[in-house]
Write a structure and sequence with these properties.
Blueprint lengths: L1 H45 L4 H6 L6 E7 L6 H9 L6 E8 L5 H9 L2 E2 L13 E6 L8 E6 L4 H11 L4 E5 L4 E2 L3 H11 L4 E11 L4 E3 L2 E4 L6 H23 L10 E5 H6 L10 H15 L4 E13 L5 H21 L10 H16 L1 H18 L4 H29 L6 H17 L1 H17 L11 H16 L1
Parallel strand pairs: 1-2, 1-6, 2-5, 8-12
Antiparallel strand pairs: 3-4, 4-5, 6-11, 7-12, 8-11, 9-10
């Protein structure tokens, strides 16, 4: 009896894994088609947009850029200057010194002639103590506000910036990111275009600046990273932004805007209580909470996405640092999905409840577990002597070719619409990375995802230490070349 039940269970698992594989194939084909249509429509709309009209219009909403900084002394002045140089009239730049232990604040004070200023603001969202607010009497730096506060973490620093901000739209970014000069103009456009629905947030593409030439806060020449881990992330970001998020945007299903670059309606952010400080996935959690609030208020809304390359960041190229990042990502996903379980398959919440939440639960949260389960099931069949090599190899080839096709098309989308990587050698290296990724990098991603699940079960918190430094090296390299040539 027990043997019969055991073998029945094995057969049922086999059918479930087969159905899961077929579902993945159909889903990714659908995502490819939807993202292509959305990219086409975005390009069509862009042809009729005059950004000069936007920048000169008195109707444009005011924007507050909030950038938390912790121990960023080496690059904080250059980063602040880069933000202040963005093309937008109604702009406020807020740097939040989140209890830095180095001289981040002192360098800002010296560079911009800041003075501590009596500044009245409504502390709508509780935060760690604000020690002072600094502004400059120099009119050239009138857009800059610096907040000095006790350390409370990134989410707490963003909340402090929200309290002080005066803009109608908030732009929450990482201080070490590089923004294109017209990034605000392009990101603010969806807030002005939509008529029948209220745009509550807009996300943008994050580009990878490792090994690129960066001069005066601008990416001047694109190159792919020199390491295999870096090149893998270029392809991964193409898949995530140009395919996954564009497809979700097609059906208004976005529930994640990258914490490195996002725009939000300030009044709504304050209404829902700002960022949650007790999660490592505060960016995703805020969007889900905002969408949930709008659905419960029965107000038509949209979370939009701009696929133009407007923001660049440095990605980790060491396995130990990348492992910490992916561990944090999976823990943040699990936390958010558990905090908002009431959304699951509830028509009341529209696409978010019926499509986005199940998709993220099955493919993002349980993805590593399902892949590890498939490997374990294959080993079990080998042990039981019920292993079909023909069936296994056929299914493996189908899934491998699907993976290669999706990744290759994501590179194709980038080349058709933006063509930033013009060196054929770079493109050849990306294609080689696509072919090797399932055997080299992907198993590590699955393992790090499993570790994230285990750490979540153990109650582990925190971000883990991230190490940066690529931008400065790229800029120093370019400066050196310029000095030598002159």
């Amino acid at each position: 009896m027990y043997n019969f039940l055991f073998y029945l269970l094995v057969e049922v698992l086999g059918v479930l894994f087969l159905l899961m594989s077929l579902t993945v194939v159909m889903l990714y084909l659908l995502i490819m088609a939807m993202s292509a249509l959305e990219m086409r429509d975005h390009r069509k709309r862009g042809r009729f947009t005059d950004y000069e009209d936007i920048i000169s219009s008195p109707l444009v909403p005011s924007v507050s850029i909030i950038a938390p900084a912790f121990n960023e002394a080496e690059s904080i002045v250059q980063n602040a200057k880069s933000l202040l140089s963005l093309h937008y009239a109604k702009l406020e730049v807020i740097i939040v010194n989140d209890g830095s232990k180095d001289d981040t604040l002192e360098r800002l004070i010296d560079a911009f002639k800041l003075v501590k200023t009596p500044f009245a603001f409504d502390e709508s969202i509780p935060t760690a103590e604000v020690r002072g607010i600094y502004k400059s009497p120099n009119k050239s730096f009138s857009k800059l506000v610096v907040i000095d506060k006790e350390n409370g973490g990134k989410a707490d620093a963003l909340n402090a910036g929200i309290n002080v901000s005066s803009g109608e739209v908030l732009s929450c970014i990482d201080v070490d990111c590089i923004l294109s000069s017209d990034s605000i103009l392009r990101m603010i456009r969806p807030f002005m275009e939509e008529v029948n629905r209220k745009v509550i947030a807009v996300g943008g593409v994050i580009g990878i600046a490792n090994n690129c030439d960066v001069v005066d806060g601008t990416v001047t020449k694109y190159r792919i990273p020199q390491t295999a881990l870096g090149r893998f992330q270029v392809i991964e970001y193409f898949r995530a932004f140009l395919m996954g998020r564009m497809a979700m945007n097609r059906i208004n299903g976005l529930i994640l805007i990258s914490g490195a670059f996002g725009f939000f309606r300030r009044d709504l952010v304050v209404a829902v209580g700002g960022y949650l400080t007790k999660t490592v996935g505060e960016d995703m959690e805020l969007i889900v909470r905002m969408r949930r609030y709008m659905a419960e208020q029965k107000v038509p809304y949209k979370v939009d996405f701009v696929p133009d390359p407007l923001c660049w960041t440095e990605v980790p190229e060491r396995s130990d640092i990348l492992a910490k990042q992916r561990n944090r990502w999976i823990r943040g996903t699990i936390e958010t999905l558990q905090l908002h379980q009431t959304l699951r398959l509830k028509p009341k919440y529209g696409v978010m409840g019926m499509v986005s939440y199940p998709y993220w639960s099955l493919f993002e949260k349980f993805g590593p577990i399902l892949e590890a389960g498939g490997i374990a099931y294959t080993l079990l069949l080998i042990i039981l002597g019920d292993f079909s090599a023909f069936f296994f190899i056929s299914l493996f080839i189908v899934m491998y070719l699907l993976f290669v096709m999706v990744s290759t098309f994501s590179i194709l989308y980038e080349q058709i619409f933006y063509n930033n990587y013009k060196d054929k050698k770079d493109l050849n290296r990306l294609i080689v990375s696509v072919l090797l990724e399932p055997f080299t990098i992907h198993p590590k991603i699955v393992w790090w995802g499993l570790q994230g699940h285990w750490d979540f079960i153990k109650g582990k918190g925190g971000w883990g230490k991230m190490i940066h430094g690529g931008f400065k090296k790229a800029e120093d390299k370019k400066t050196l070349e310029t000095n030598v040539s002159s």
